């Protein structure tokens, strides 16, 4: 697994999916400020890399969650990758909105999902885990059993690890913060002083730059 995490980190760096902006930090949906951003959606624009991500997510599901009989993507970042994964596995696919539509059927879950289906959730990126676990909650309210979640990347924050543990959801990711930063330093994508700044931010991301 470590080999995969290093390999995928390298591929993300090659397509410049990793952004470092210490002087103009990103603002996440959670309100946190961050000097670092992983834009996994860039992988969709490169056919070879898109296929790589799809197959590695499929392998993770077959190995860790073979009982899954439906796939759910978390909107909007994981809709495309989730659909690709479901197609490869020949399983039903739905996606889960962050909030119900304000018109029409006002659906939260888009698609046809048997309430008895055992669902594996596909996500693109895990930060605090809030939006990902809201999708899990919606699926459980629909009556579904969540067998686990797969994602391309996680920042590995303790708050997210606790949230997943509390929600009893097993998470498997293709790579993570540690492997991306290590690979970025090795390849000259970032400098040692950048690593020190990133580690400082990661100690208390909720209060960084406040």
Automatic annotation (TrEMBL):
HAMAP family, A to Z: PyrE (MF_01208)
Q: Which cofactor does it need?
A: Mg(2+)
Query: What Pfam families does this protein's entry cite?
Result: Pribosyltran (PF00156)
Description of how the protein assembles with itself and partners: Homodimer.
Which top EC class applies here?
Answer: transferase
Q: What is this protein for, i.e. what is its function?
A: Catalyzes the transfer of a ribosyl phosphate group from 5-phosphoribose 1-diphosphate to orotate, leading to the formation of orotidine monophosphate (OMP).
What domain of life is recorded for the organism? Bacteria
Annotated residues that bind 5-phospho-alpha-D-ribose 1-diphosphate are located at 97, 101, 103, 123-131
Under InterPro entries, the record lists: OPRT (IPR023031), Or_phspho_trans_dom (IPR004467), PRTase-like (IPR029057), PRTase_dom (IPR000836)
Note the PANTHER family from the entry. Answer: OROTATE PHOSPHORIBOSYLTRANSFERASE, URIDINE 5'-MONOPHOSPHATE SYNTHASE
Q: What is this protein called?
A: Orotate phosphoribosyltransferase
Q: Which reaction does it catalyse?
A: orotidine 5'-phosphate + diphosphate = orotate + 5-phospho-alpha-D-ribose 1-diphosphate
Tell me its EC number(s), please: 2.4.2.10
What does UniProt list as this organism's lineage?
Bacteria, Pseudomonadati, Bacteroidota, Bacteroidia, Bacteroidales
Ordered alphabetically, the record's keywords are: Glycosyltransferase, Magnesium, Pyrimidine biosynthesis, Transferase
Which molecular function GO terms apply here?
orotate phosphoribosyltransferase activity
